[in-house]
Amino acid sequence: MDEHLPPLGCVPSAIEVLQGDFPDWDIWRERLSGGRHGDWCARRVGDQDSDPLRHDSVEGLRDLLIEAEKQG
């Protein structure tokens, strides 16, 4: 057995990495009618009053989170 190969099933998904990089944010996927997936959304933990950041891709949401972090 090759000890240099990572174990199967132990690689985090892109959204798990994103959540780990931005622990002060709630991140979720919008669910549309009929159970279809919508945008990826994020809002600061504890902030239920502001509109969430939204993007149709994880990479796009990452860019929005980076900009939001820069603005404070």
Task: Summarize this entry quickly.
The chain has 72 residues and is α+β, with helices and mostly antiparallel strands.
Description:
By secondary structure, this protein is an alpha+beta fold. Helix content is 31%, strand content 25%.
How many DSSP H or I helices?
2
Oligomer: single chain
Order of helices and strands: HEEEH
Radius of gyration: 15 Å
The structure class reads: alpha+beta
Mean pLDDT, rounded to whole units? 92
Biggest β-sheet strands, sense, barrel? 3 strands, antiparallel
Strand order of the largest sheet: 1-2-3
* Low-pLDDT segments, ≥5 res: none
Count every beta strand, where a strand is a DSSP E run of 2 or more residues: 3
What fraction strand?
25-35%
Counting structural domains, the number is: 1
Helix content: 25-40%
CA distance, first residue to last residue: 48 Å
Gross morphology: globular
List the helices and strands and how they pair.
Blueprint: H1 14-21, E1 25-31, E2 37-44, E3 53-55, H2 58-71
Antiparallel strand pairs: 1-2, 2-3
Keywords:
three-stranded antiparallel beta sheet, 31% helix, 3 strands, 2 helices, 72 residues, globular
